[in-house]
Amino acid sequence: THGFAEIMESEINGEKSLHSIASFQPDDVICSFAGGVVSNTPTYLTVQTSNNEHITLVPEFLQYINHSCTPNVFFNTTTFQLTALKKIEPGDEFTFFYPSTEWDMAQPFACTCGTATCLQHISGAKYIDKTLLAKHKLTDFIQSMLNK
């Protein structure tokens, strides 16, 4: 456990996920984060903060926050705070919308979140219609890329 969260591992596929052990309301700051290693190219474990800057997350356990097309948290890469998008209860998995931080992902994937608004394929904000992106909270960087 890590104060407000615990890492869980699926018995079915061995994938890890981060789950809340506390309650949060929309707009609550869950925690602050920082950039560890900074790279000019994306990797599977980085979060994009600018056109040529991709960071590993500190604390490191935040890397286990998986994607969902209906996320419950947001990585604000301007304030470096993880915030709640909706009510979160103990046991809930933390999820974020990868295209909210990623313009062009290093490893696109078939989404299996199973939500009614699932986009099916996730490869970065660059490849998603602006009207669909408008339904999500986006980082200042992604917003700036859309405004170009």
Topology as H/E string? EEEEEEEEEEEEHH
- Secondary structure tally, helices: 2
Major sheet: arrangement of strands: 3-9-8
Q: Quote the beta fraction.
A: 25-35%
Keywords:
single chain; 148 residues; mainly beta; three-stranded antiparallel sheet
Description:
This protein is mainly beta and 148 residues long. 7% of the residues lie in helices and 31% in strands. It has two helices and twelve strands; from the N terminus they run E-E-E-E-E-E-E-E-E-E-E-E-H-H. The chain has helices at 130-133, 140-146; strands at residues 5-9, 16-20, 29-32, 34-39, 47-50, 53-58, 66-67, 73-76, 81-84, 95-96, 109-110, 121-122. Strands 3-9-8 form a three-stranded antiparallel β-sheet, with no helix packed on it. Strands 4-6-5 form a three-stranded antiparallel β-sheet, with no helix packed on it. A two-stranded antiparallel ribbon has the order 1-2. Strand 8 (73-76) and strand 9 (81-84) form a beta hairpin. The longest helix is centred in the last third of the chain and has 7 residues, at 140-146. It is globular, with a radius of gyration of 14 Å. The termini are far apart. The model has no long low-confidence stretch (mean pLDDT 96).
